[in-house]
Specification:
This protein is mainly α and 245 residues long. The protein folds into two domains: 112 residues, no CATH class; 77 residues, no CATH class. It contains twelve helices and three strands, in the order H-H-H-H-H-H-H-H-H-H-H-E-E-H-E. Strands 2-1-3 form a three-stranded mixed beta sheet. The protein starts with 9 loop residues before the first helix and ends in a 9-residue tail after the last strand.
Length: 245
Amino acid sequence: MNNNINNPDNKTISVIQSFDNTFESDDLVDSFSRVLEMGFDKALEFADIAPILNDIPVLGMIVDGTKTIANLHLHKLAKKVFDFFYGIKDIAIEKRQKFAREYCQANREDTAEALLGILDRLNNQNYVPIICSLMRAKMDEKITIPEFNRTVLALERTSYTDLQFLTKFIDNYYEEGLAEAFESAGLVYQSVIDGGDADPNSDNGIKLRLSPTGRILLVYGLGYSMDVYAPRNTDVKSSLKWETF
């Protein structure tokens, strides 16, 4: 990964470079097997006397930061980074390196820095395996880098408590609050436009359906059936009539 970094501090540069080295490491499986024997929280608790997290370079550096400044934010980031590398540990190094090159070329920014930013912005740690699954889909040429980017951005904008209800929008559907939240994230679109019915929950009201980005998240991020289909067309239900004057 090429580091195009604009004047960050030396600690930040070191963390990014360490993330880069870990991402392209051929020893992830062995490193994680040692950490998992103890468990992440225990390994973090006893980091001073049993620095086993140093087996995963970037985690050793982030954990060092949490010890130094007692930063809850860095503690949460460390757990996300751990889950991320655990989720991709069995992916062939050649695939990881190819993803890093293509991501850097498409986005014109350092891949390690960008991935750290994504993990940092996630509003729920449970989203990390979804990011790993989307990355696998890109590595397997099932989605493109732009589709990966759009889906990750949509995920960042979505509440974890809402995500379980995304399947409701496989077919035309409306639910107040939920529909608007998914639409603002780009996961659904208005598939039926209301022609005057004041009640959106009626058969003649506004309906929304999975967008192409919503389908990618559901199929490749959450592992639902490939039968999920997201057509991009809109029906207009209207009681209006043209009159001749």
